[in-house]
Amino acid sequence: MWEELKKDTTTKSTLFLSDAEDELASMKCRRSTDVKTHLAELTAHFNLMVRHKENLIEMGLLISDTHFNAMIMASLPVSYHPMKQMISAAERTTKTPMSLTDLIAFFTEEAWNWYLEDQQASQAKSVPYVHKLKQKKSKGCKEGKSGKKCGNCGKDGHTKPNCYQKGGGK
């Protein structure tokens, strides 16, 4: 019974294999607005495509590395077009296709770089706000710490003639 089950799952008609290959070729990875989510979805997408390819090979369909690489590149969102052009140019120059592992690593690394850039940008946006808070806290004391105490506001670092608070000299 096991042999029959194995035969049923691994021996398929040409029409079935053709449809399964078309399904693999039509897989698409969408570009999520959240970069971290996109990185996770991209990784899952690549894993699913590789699993489909391996299943097709077990069923007797041979898919060349060049053809599968083209399927992977076609499945990526428009935002990856510049990278796809770089890979195509490099392959034309070297006349050898990029390995599947290198191709997936290249696109995953690019998504990771986008994620890091997004993290840095969000951190940079919060820095000016913190700087403004620090400026508000130090308002009223325009001189450095000099051991002087203001008789007007009671703060250290200045005297009443140099105080910016109400009642001070400035």
Question: What portion of residues is helical?
Answer: 55-70%
> How widely separated are the two ends?
97 Å
How much of the sequence is in beta strands? under 5%
| Main β-sheet description | none
Taking all Cα atoms into account, the compactness measure Rg is 31 Å
Please give the count of helices: 6
SSE ordering: HHHHHH
- Name the poorly predicted regions: 137-144
Report the principal-axis shape.
Answer: elongated
The total tally of domains equals 2
DSSP strand tally: 0
Describe this structure in words.
The chain has 170 residues and is mainly α. The protein folds into two domains: 2-137, no CATH class; 141-170, no CATH class. It is built from six helices and no strands. Helix 2 packs antiparallel against helix 3 and helix 3 runs antiparallel to helix 6 (100-138). The longest helix is centred in the C-terminal third of the chain and has 39 residues, at 100-138. The chain starts with a helix and ends in a 32-residue tail after the last helix. Residues 137-144 have low confidence and may be disordered.
Features:
170 residues, 64% helix, mainly alpha
Quick synopsis:
With 170 residues, the protein is mostly helical. Helix content is 64%, strand content 0%.
SSE layout:
Elements lengths: L1 H9 L3 H12 L9 H24 L6 H11 L5 H14 L5 H39 L32
Helix pairs in contact: 2-3, 3-6
